[in-house]
Specification:
Number of helices: 11
CATH class of the largest domain: Alpha Beta
CATH architecture of the largest domain: 3-Layer(aba) Sandwich
Shape: globular
Strand order of the largest sheet: 5-4-3-6-8-7
Length: 267
Amino acid sequence: MPETLFGSLASVTIDRLRAFEPADGYWLAFSGGKDSVVLYDLAVASGVKFDAHYSVPPPDPPEVKAFVRKYYPSVQRIYPKKNVLLLARKHGMLPSRIVRWCCAEWKETGGNGRTILTGIRAEESARRAARKMVEACYRKPGTRFVHPLMDWMTEDVWQYIRSHSLPTCSLYAEGQKRVGCVLCPMTRNVEPQIQRWPGIARMWRAMAEVAWQAATQRGRERCDFPNAESYWRWWLDRDASPPTDKMPLWDDTPMASACGDQQEGGA
C-alpha cells in the first residue's frame, strides 16, 4: 500500500474508522463492488462495530447478487418495497442523469438516524470529489456519512484486494470496470449490456411503456414523445439532448438523491 505522512493508506483508513465510530456502530452500505469489499475488510480489521447492508436494486447484475450471497452471507439484504412498474407509473419517467430517482428508491432507503459508511472515492467523479469525508445528510435528520476511502485511487483498491486475497465479483475478471446496475443512466455503453442481460433490458423497456402512459394520461403537453418506443430509444441514447427545454416526461416527486451515493454504486 502507498505510504502517507502518517503511515500506510490502509492504516490511516483504519484510524479514521476508529476515530469516527459511533456508539451504536456504523451502518455499512455494501454494493458488492470492489470498493465495498475493501471497506468491509477494513471495518473488520479496525475492530469497529458495524452492520452491513446490501440494498438490492432490481437492475443489479445477477453475478453481483450471487457474489454477495456466496461470499458475504452475513450482509443483510434490503429488497425494494415497490414493484418497478408502480415506480415507473409514480414518477412518469425512467431515471435520468438529472433525476436519479432510482438511487433514492432502491439504494438510499436505510440507515436513517445512523452513521453510514460508504466506499465512494474522489477519483470516481467531480461530484464525488466535492464531497467531504465526514458529512451530515441534509434530508435525514440525525444521519451522517463517513467516506473513509475518499482519497484512495483505483490502483490502491486493487493492490489491497490482491495483497489480502479478497474475493471480487466475476464480472471484473471479464474486464468490467464497474459492476453496478445494468443500463444505469450514468453509463454509456448500453448495447453490450442489453445483449448480456436481456431480461433486465426487458424490465427497463416495460417500465418505459408504463412511464410514457402515465405521462400522457397526466397531460400530453408534458410528454415530448409520440409513443413509448420513441421514448425508450431516446433514453438509451446517452448522447441525446432533451427534446424540449423542459424535463422529458414527468416527475411529480423529484428524488435525484436523498443524500447522494449512499451505496457506492458497484464501482
